[in-house]
């Protein structure tokens, strides 16, 4: 048996007052003739997935809150690195025979070597000057000579270098003939042993991304 559905004139008028709107790629939603959301016979909104946020809000639904996306931006940090260097200067380049007085050439050599190091670092934090001799002559005499030569170099650096460490980080000593780097039995070996060593320490800074 086929049942016929008869619509009353008032029901038909309500149906004709509904405007069906559709988008090509979205589901339809219903509005009344005044543009407001359509309601069912029991007074509830006819909700569709295609309804706008404003229409949903008119039906009593909470308006969607804006989503704020926080994008992390890389930041840079300063990293401090310690740098150490040993500078060895032959006594023949610095002093006349059996002398602790710097020659004019010696001053230019010291300037060049210290400036080269200090040009690489942000600050010079520590410095130690150590004098050495060969084993020719009395041991006590060599000890004193090594101390005087080390002091001569240190005094010149303190007076002329631009970025020296503080006094408590600046030390001077003589080792005499006690720490040879070559044999004292040969002329070349003794020449290598007559030297002044400068131990310098500084810091450099680099920018790195976290």
Structure description:
The protein is α+β, with helices and mostly antiparallel strands and 210 residues long. The protein has 2 domains: 50 residues, no CATH class; 134 residues, OmpA-like domain (60s Ribosomal Protein L30, Chain: A, 2-Layer Sandwich). The chain has 6 helices and 6 strands. A 4-stranded mixed beta sheet has the order 3-6-4-5. The protein has a two-stranded antiparallel sheet with strand order 1-2. A hairpin with a 7-residue loop joins β1 and β2. It is rod-shaped and about 120 Å long. The relative contact order is 0.17.
For this entry, what is the oligomeric state of its chains? single chain
Number of separate helices: 6
Number of strands: 6
Quickly name the level 1 CATH class of the largest domain: Alpha Beta
CATH superfamily of the largest domain: OmpA-like domain
Q: How many individual domains?
A: 2
Order of helices and strands: HEEHEHHEHEHE
* Portion in beta strands: 15-25%
Strands ordered across the widest β-sheet = 3-6-4-5
Percent range of helical residues: 25-40%
């Amino acid at each position: 048996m086929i049942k016929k559905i008869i619509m009353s004139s008032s029901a038909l008028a309500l149906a004709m007052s509904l405007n069906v709107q559709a988008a090509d790629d979205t589901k339809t939603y219903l509005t009344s003739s005044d543009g407001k959301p359509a309601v069912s016979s029991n007074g509830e909104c006819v909700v569709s997935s295609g309804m706008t946020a404003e229409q949903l809000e008119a039906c009593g639904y909470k308006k969607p809150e804006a989503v704020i996306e926080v994008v992390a931006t890389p930041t840079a940090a300063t990293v401090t690195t310690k740098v150490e260097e040993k500078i060895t200067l032959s006594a023949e380049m610095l002093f006349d025979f059996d002398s602790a007085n710097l020659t004019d050439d010696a001053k230019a050599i010291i300037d060049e070597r210290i400036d080269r190091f200090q040009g690489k670092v942000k600050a010079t934090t520590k410095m130690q000057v150590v004098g050495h001799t060969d084993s020719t002559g009395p041991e006590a005499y060599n000890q004193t000579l090594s101390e005087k030569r080390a002091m001569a170099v240190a005094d010149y650096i303190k007076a002329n270098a631009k970025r020296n460490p503080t006094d408590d980080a600046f030390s001077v000593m003589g080792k005499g003939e006690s720490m040879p780097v070559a044999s004292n039995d040969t002329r070349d070996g003794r020449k290598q042993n007559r030297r002044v060593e400068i131990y310098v320490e500084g810091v450099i800074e680099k920018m790195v991304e976290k």
